[in-house]
From TrEMBL:
Covered residues, full protein: 479 to 756 of 759
Protein name: Diguanylate cyclase (GGDEF) domain-containing protein
Ranges of residues in domain EAL: 23-276
Amino acid sequence: AAKAGRRGPVVYDEQRHGSGRHRLEAVAQLRRAIDEGELTLHYQPKLRVATGRVEGVEALVRWQHPERGLLFPDAFIELAESAGLMAALTSRVLDTALAQRREWSDRGLELVVSVNVSPSNLVDERFPDEAAGLLARHGVPATALVLEVTESLLMEDRERAVRVLAGLREAGVGVSIDDYGTGYSSLAYLATLPVTELKLDRTFVRTMTGSARSAAIVTSTLQLAHALGLVFVAEGAEDPVTVEALAALGCDVVQGYQLSPPLPPEQLERWLGTRATA
Ligand code: C2E
Ligand code: CA
Ligand code: CA
Ligand code: CA
């Protein structure tokens, strides 16, 4: 019954099944997954170009489903959002990521952890306090956390979103505009928001070495981001030529398969270890 997604079937397809028993079952399963720890995080390194060091990682959620195996976010994020489970999912992800960050720092590994947040988080005015509370509970400094928000998300309830972002910034948490360029707001408009980082969508990065158009978008976005005092991040760098081109342009941070795919924590640690001794 599930539609074939980018990397496999979705847990539930809103369009095809409407509401009904199938949906209720999928929601119940997801609720259980959130409550009982079936969600895990993989971490993808973010390379600081100027130093050649991995200064941070992005936490990406996976669902270790008892029957279906490892599921990617495309298979359940939409359902979480529509079923009102996103607040609970984000809390779980944030808690897990900060516990991991604390464990790493206890072993001398200082990484900035980026966590993705959703529309429902940004219209929840208690969210900044929740984030601050979790940081305190895990003894993690706010500067070690970046929250990634998508552009579309910022358009929905703008005033409330700005208040929530301002609250996060006041707490000392970094804020990144994710998937930049896929919506239709201008960077001039987005720059009025309290953010620290701009992450250009991978569609432009992936094609920049073969397309003058994409290259122009990368170059101009980077210049504008820098003019506005934002850290410029390129995601989806899949080959060495792209990484070199980004470095030559003055890109601050690079993320993508060329460096490493998202990895479970132990594998990430091993990967960091081999890099350090290479
Ligand atoms: P995103 O935030 O844009 O995350 C980057 C996605 O690009 C990840 O997919 C990552 O595996 C993939 N990626 C990384 N490097 C490359 C590359 O070089 N080439 C290509 N083609 N892809 C690359 P993933 O893990 O499947 O996540 C998909 C989306 O699901 C994320 O997109 C994000 O919007 C959402 N997501 C993931 N984790 C969470 C979460 O904890 N909470 C929420 N609300 N959303 C999440
Ligand atoms: Ca992201
Ligand atoms: Ca992105
Ligand atoms: Ca995305």
